[in-house]
Amino acid sequence: MGICWGSPANNTTPCTTGQLNTGISQTTSNTTSSGGSNISGNSRFSAGSGDESYPNGQILPTPNLRDFSFAELKAATKNFRGDAVLGEGGFGKVYKGWLDDKSPARNGSSMMIAVKKLNSESLQGFEEWQSEVNFLGRLSHPNLVKLLGYCWEDTELLLVYEFMQKGSLENHLFGRGAAVQPLPWDIRIKIAIGAARGLAFLHTSEKQVIYRDFKASNILLDMFYTAKISDFGLAKLGPSASRSHVTTRVMGTYGYAAPEYVATGHLYVKSDVYGFGIVLIEILTGLRALDTNRPSGKHNLVDWIKPFLSEKRKLKNIIDSRLEGKYPSKAAFHMAGLALKCIESEQKHRPSMKDVVETLEWIETVAEKPREPRSHSTNRVAHRRGGQQPLHHRSPLHQRQDGGGPAYQSSSKVYTPRK
Asked: Per the residue annotation, which of 101, 213, 231, 320 is the catalytic one?
């Protein structure tokens, strides 16, 4: 759940007689007993439910989560056996497990799950566990990981998620060894688009959500490399209509946090956009945002790489070598330009995530479009426009409306390229 700056979180020990705060609107879900577990009355407990009917996402009125017993999860993970560990973060270890799903839709079949178990020595503890339930328990979107349920028993705090077969983007970008296959260009841009759609949903939802810890390790991939944002332990509700930002203690991960947030504790929706820009640079370069093993002056990826992103000739020198040159140079250059916009030092100059999604979708078409020979007429048109490339070759972020500035700064409408 990230590295914290400032004072550590209160390591609150939950009281088993208390009520779970189960919703962004501070509502509590009613549960009914069912074979040792409590399931909300409208539960659709299934690894594949919900998102298909709402491709643009939805916010549920109350969390739709299953209340697991500790015994169930202990059995599902074979007593939290060491060889079932999928990973470990600030909250604790994540285990792979198998659960017998007795719902009629699955005919009693087993399903794979991921179980996150709080480390008793963790500084993140109850507040982050509760935040995960409050936010992810009500948010449903194809690019957000499904939280299936939770366990709160004595001092044991656990969270149960859908299992993501391909693991994290971090592992694919930075992992080494025969088991780790480098991601081809088309998969990288698919992942970027999926993650951007997830963030855009959070930012434009009725209850605006600031994610606050966007990074490669929090982007998980299913068997089709669909990107899903996970880990909402640091998420915050966005500012009210009368304010531009939320003021909060600084928490997050070194290398991804926006400069205004680090300096002042002022958290904006576009603070997430900065983190997204860092991940875009990681996708392009295959290099970590922060790596002290690199030579002096290259520890911080942005400080080192930023001058390379604005020139095609320099860019090719820092593109991930594991792509082996198999990528569309024009699309890579546009992605680098988008990353630069996302990491602008002033948050007001960064694009919205909605604009980022549209630009990435356009970049994807650039990658797929076969190169066409340039005709003399095309050259004459470009010459009349003062050397500008034709409009249909320009990114949505560069297209102008009525002679104004970039669309994401001056207009609520973003023009998509003409076919």
From this structure: 213
Q: Is the pLDDT of residue 383 over 60?
A: no
> SS3 for 280-308, per residue?
HHHHHHCCCCECCCCCCCCCEHHHHHHHH
CB 168 within 8 A of CB 216: yes
> Would you list the DSSP string of 108-133?
T-EEEEEEEEE-TT-SSHHHHHHHHH
The DSSP 8-state label assigned to residue 350 in this structure reads: S
Convert the pLDDT of each residue in 242-264 to its tens digit.
Answer: 687 888 888 888 899 999 999 99
Q: Which of 410, 416, 402 has the alpha carbon at shortest distance from 352? A: 410
Q: How far apart are CA 364 and CA 360, in angstroms?
A: 6
Max distance between CA atoms of the chain, in angstroms, equals 78
Q: Which helix (H) or strand (E) holds 227?
A: strand 227-229
pTM over 0.70: yes
Helix (H/G/I), strand (E/B), else coil: 4: strand
Record the tokens describing residue 282, joined without a space.
């990681």
Amino acid 36 reads G
Domains by residue range for the chain, with CATH? 19-162 (3.30.200.20), 167-371 (1.10.510.10)
Residue 102 annotated as lining a ligand binding site: no
d(CA 11, CA 123): 5
- Is residue 354 within a helix (H) or strand (E), and if so which, with residue range? helix 353-368
The bridge status of strand 110-118 relative to strand 156-162 is antiparallel
Q: Active site includes 83?
A: no
Are the beta carbons of 209 and 365 closer than 8 angstroms? no
Helix, strand or coil for residue 237? strand
Lowest mean pLDDT among 149-158, 183-192, 350-359, 405-414: 405-414
